[in-house]
Design a protein that fits this description.
Elements lengths: L12 H4 L11 E3 L2 E6 L6 E7 L5 E6 L4 E6 L5 E4 L6 E7 L5 E7 L2 E7 L5 E3 L5 E9 L5 E7 L4 E6 L5 E4 L8 E6 L5 E6 L4 E6 L5 E4 L7 E6 L5 E5 L4 E5 L5 E4 L6 E8 L2 E7 L4 E6 L5 E4 L6 E8 L2 E7 L5 E7 L1
Antiparallel strand pairs: 1-2, 2-29, 3-4, 4-5, 5-6, 7-8, 8-9, 9-10, 11-12, 12-13, 13-14, 15-16, 16-17, 17-18, 19-20, 20-21, 21-22, 23-24, 24-25, 25-26, 27-28, 28-29
């Protein structure tokens, strides 16, 4: 089974923080970025998960009881939303129009959702799903994610704009599959498991599958794709990141000093990710020329980017108090 199918890391602020009051941290500058903390009033922990080209970001925060989702526009104005009756609502992605996807939960059961530009929340469980999560939405409104069926097997899914569902499952996926990224053409990436290991995949618009495994990799995961067909992911247990060009060429993505690397988002030709330096998690931006820019919120222990668009990067950070805060970094 793919490693992060059950409960992918950092999907619930409540599960990631200590219950302590968040500190107020002023905007500050380090290197080529200006940093701003994003913590809604009353938050005990915040995660910013994605941002679009208009500068609208999405995420979720924990208030001591449940997770609430939010949109934050480029001027800093918040819009909050929760699924009625849910014990948590977690926004994970946003497209250029402002359509948001993610998942909400009731007890131990999760449901994929879509929030349209008018603010209407809709549950989008694939047929036969007992648990589901939506992870990405392209500018056309196509949505991908994964679901668990009644036999506890995991599948990727595509929800088309007309509301129909297609199961995303590469041949040989005896251990499950999940879809994690989709571009404007409708090309989908994710990963699948056979009886021994995990493999990345690309599903093209004609329904054909291509395995995305860097040369020599013992396991791999494809986690994002841009509109030019470039794919990011990690391999060998998160020890290395990769970029696969549309022509099939692989490039390893390892910032200097990295002991483990995970690219998490690709916006245009810019790649945001996290690496482990032996003691702390650091963020990075890989520029189109292959150079790296450090993303490290000043005075903190760990900085983890999660989304990138243009000159903006969003994510979360934590300090010695172990409280999780959202952030926006702008070049």
């Amino acid at each position: 089974m793919p490693k992060i199918i059950g409960f992918p890391p950092f999907q619930s602020v409540a599960a990631a923080i200590l219950l302590a009051l968040a500190l107020t941290v002023p905007a500050s500058s380090a290197g080529t970025f200006t940093y701003v903390t994003i913590d809604p009033v009353g938050s005990l922990g915040t995660e910013v998960t994605a941002i679009n080209k208009a500068g609208t970001s999405v995420g979720h925060y924990y208030d001591g009881s449940i997770d609430h989702s939010f949109l934050r526009d480029k001027d800093g104005n918040f819009t909050f939303f929760v699924q009625p009756g849910a014990s948590g609502t977690n926004a994970l992605a946003i497209n250029k129009s402002g359509v948001v996807v993610g998942w909400w939960r009731s007890g131990n059961v999760g449901h994929a959702f879509m929030r349209d530009t008018g603010g209407t929340l809709s549950t989008i469980d694939p047929p036969g799903a007992k648990y589901s999560q939506a992870f990405a939405v392209n500018d056309a409104g196509q949505i991908v994610g994964w679901f668990q069926d009644q036999q506890n097997f995991f599948h990727g899914f595509l929800r088309s704009t007309d509301g129909t569902f297609t199961t995303i499952e590469p041949p040989g996926a005896t251990g499950g599959s999940a879809a994690y990224g989709i571009n404007k053409k409708g090309q989908i990436v994710g990963y699948w498991a056979d009886d021994t290991t995990d493999h990345g995949f690309l599903r093209d618009t004609d329904g054909s599958y291509t395995t995305i495994d860097p040369p020599g990799a013992t396991e791999a995961m494809a986690l994002g794709i841009n509109n030019k067909g470039q794919i990011i992911g990690s391999y060998d247990g998160g020890n290395h990141g990769f970029l696969r060009d549309a022509n099939g060429t692989f490039t390893t993505i390892d910032p200097p000093g990295a002991q483990g690397t995970s690219p998490v988002a690709i916006g245009g030709k810019k790649i945001a990710g996290t690496y482990w330096d032996g003691s702390h998690s650091r963020g990075y931006l890989r520029n189109p020329d292959g150079t790296f820019t450090l993303i490290d919120y000043p005075g903190t222990l760990n900085t983890l980017p999660e989304g990138v668009a243009g000159k903006r990067v969003v994510g979360r950070y934590s300090g010695a108090d172990h409280v999780v805060h959202g952030f926006l970094a702008t070049k």
